[in-house]
Amino acid sequence: MVKGNWNLNWFEAVPGRSLPAKIEAESFDVASDVRPETTSDDGGGQNLGYIDDGDWMDYNVTVASAGVYTFQFRVANSYGNGVIYIKSEDGSTLGSVTVPRTYGWQNWTTVSTTATLAAGSQVLRIYANPGAWNFNWFNVTQGGTVQSPAVITFAALPNKAVGDGDFNLVATTTNSETPVTFTSSNPSVLTVSNASGVWKASVVSAGTSTITASQAASASFLAATNVSQTQIVTSATVAAGQKITIDPKRWYQLNNVSNGLDGLFDGITDVNVETGWGKVLPNYDAYYPCWTVKR
Ligand SMILES: [Ca+2]
Ligand SMILES: [Ca+2]
To answer: What is the second-level CATH architecture of the domain 149-234?
Structure first.
């Protein structure tokens, strides 16, 4: 005893609930700032409210045998975006599940996930982050399919040039239950679209865009980690010996070139052409403004 001088009448050591079992949320052993209230869910009794970001409830349990357990959580959520974490005494996360919006603090739904539990007496912490969901009970049953995140494979994207045609975006995934979707960070460079399940990319202009492949959770998998690749779009390329069609919408400069436009078409298109001096203007040069040239 570090500091004494107080009386003790009694204390109670409550045995942990045996799992598997259905546990009322409001029967927690210790919790942060959460409050019981009368519930209108099936079966009546109470639920917990005032479960805010970072709030938690601890339950002493005794697990019959080590292994995978399925956790069902009875929840209501007026606004959405909640997540339930199942944590062990050492703070590690054993499982998690999203709390969907139910459009009312007494509109109840059941969500489930799995966690692998050690055998014996232990504390399970139900941790809210984000919070703002109501909690009536959780039901722990032995067995279940362990959910893990799907893994997307999305290869690097070869450079494209302005004028290239549409191309398909392809990613593979370990989860065949739900589609992979794509987004473009810079639609002024590249747009993406989906028609009949095939994702196409369309070049718009020179520049770079980050293309991200995503996959939502499904029955057997958690959401995949996004995979992003950078798509570089260059200006149109010009091959050696290729004549350049003058585009009236682009800007050219040509002055004091003794051999006129021929000075532009020697196959070297990334250096200034200097073929005269002082004829019309006191300087001389001619060029075609292209950024990417093959020689
Ligand atoms: Ca609270
Ligand atoms: Ca309850």
So the answer is: Sandwich (2.60)
Distance 277 CA to ligand 2 centre (A): 92
- Tokens (6 digits) for 72: 């069902």
Are the CB atoms for 223 and 150 separated by under 8 Å?
yes
Model confidence pLDDT, tens digit, residues 59-79: 999 999 999 999 999 999 998
Ligand nearest to the CA of 56: 1
Q: Which of 279, 278, 290 is nearest to 251 (CA)?
A: 290
Q: Which ligand is nearest to the Cα of residue 48, counting in written order?
A: 2
Residue 137 CA, ligand 1 centroid: distance in Å = 17
pTM for the full predicted model = 0.54
Q: Which CATH number fits domain 17-146: 3.40.1110.10, 2.120.10.30, 2.60.120.10, 2.60.120.260?
A: 2.60.120.260
Distance CA 44, CA 136 (A): 9
Query: Cα(79) to centroid of ligand 1, in Å?
Result: 16
